[in-house]
Structures are given as C-alpha cells and as structure tokens.
Write a structure and sequence with these properties.
about 80 residues, mainly alpha, 3 helices, about 60% helix, about 0% strand, flat
Length: about 80
C-alpha cells in the first residue's frame, strides 16, 4: 500500500484545521483518513479519491451531529430474497 502524497496530507490537514483541529492533531487525522481511504479503495475497487470523499463526507456529517447511515440494501446471504 502506497504512502499518501505530501500534498494530499497537507490538503486534508487544512480541512481539519478549518474544522478547528490543532496542527498536530490535523496532521494525524489526515494521515489516518488517507490510510483508510487507501484501504477502502482496495476493498471496494474504487479510486482513492472517491474513497477519501466518502470518508470526508462522513466526517462532515458526524461534525454536524448526523447519525451514520446504515446501508439497508446490503442483506445477509441467509436472508430471504424478496
């Protein structure tokens, strides 16, 4: 798994700074978010940019106090088909 590009880290860190995080905290959060975006990209077969956008949207929603959305379309393999 490749390391995030420094420019990407700075961009995401600036977003967290804008949300009120301190510099060191924003840098750690940016690294974690970009690492998770790379994981999601591999798991779901989507681009890292798309994965990062999903995660940033979740951060913004959480900051606004919105509950996480549950994917209701995913059914277990044992559930009856409709």
């Amino acid at each position: 798994m490749s390391e995030p590009v420094e420019e990407d880290l700075e961009t995401v860190a600036r977003l967290f700074l804008g949300m009120g995080a301190e510099q060191s905290q924003a840098e750690v959060m940016a690294k974690q978010l970009l690492k998770r975006a790379a994981q999601l990209s591999a798991e779901r077969g989507i681009s890292k940019v798309e994965a990062a956008a999903i995660l940033l949207k979740q951060v913004a929603e959480a900051r606004e106090g919105l509950a996480p959305r549950i994917n209701t379309e995913v059914k277990s393999k044992d559930s009856p088909k409709s």
